[in-house]
Amino acid sequence: MKHKITTLLLLVTACLSLGTLAFAQDEKPNFQAMLQLIDERSNFSDDLAMNLTINSTDPDDGDTTTQFQMFRRDADDMFLLLIQRPETQLGQGYLRVDESLWFYDPESRQFNFTSLSESFQGSDARNSDWEASSLAEDYKVVSSVEGKLGKFDVWELELEALHDEVTYPFLKMSVTKDNNLVLKSQEYSLTKRLLRTSYYPSYAKAGDNFIADKIIFVDELVENKKTTVDFSDLSISPIPDNVFTKAYVERVNR
User: Fold this and answer.
1) I want to staple 217 with a disulfide (CB 3.0 to 4.6 A). Which of 6, 75, 124, 137 is the partner?
2) What does R_g of the chain's alpha carbons equal in angstroms?
3) pTM of structure
4) Is the bond preceding 106 in cis, omega lying within 30 degrees of 0?
């Protein structure tokens, strides 16, 4: 039976219990524990499947739309993306398995190794945006201040990478104080040049888990360039093991 997933709009967000992260108003929380909580609530013990639509606006290349199916198994750090549209890219796929990311081209019938840090189909999204969250493992919080983002009370956090395998060495994040949802993330290079700003205006809730069902990526290097990602038809029903294999990707493209 397909599990029910409800959409949570931030404009009408209800306060959630934070368990061990509860703290008095004059105290600061344990921010590493906060990152761990964000990871735990973003990652699924069940399998996850959904459809995604990416609308990109580029001042040079114009507007493009890409639709694809996504299958994710966070417990094994695996995902599969299968492009459905445009027709010229039908059947192209990205398979993350055994700590490697492969791009499949149905015309050449070849799998080519690619990087999580690379741009996804020329958009402002990165391949790493589709994998499970690992903030607590990848970053440490080096500063924190209270702030406001729109009508929301937030913690403004500065994060520094703990290793060089991340896409962005430095992050600045706005996290809601009442329920620890990430509303905004600014991503920086090693020289601390702002590369991209990501907005998370709404979330979908499945049990105790949350996933942004809309993301807006703004390119900070190219004026008026941005990418909007909309998620739909989310399901946490079991996915067959063979879906996360090269053989499956080849078979569905025949």
Assistant:
1) 124
2) 18
3) 0.87
4) no
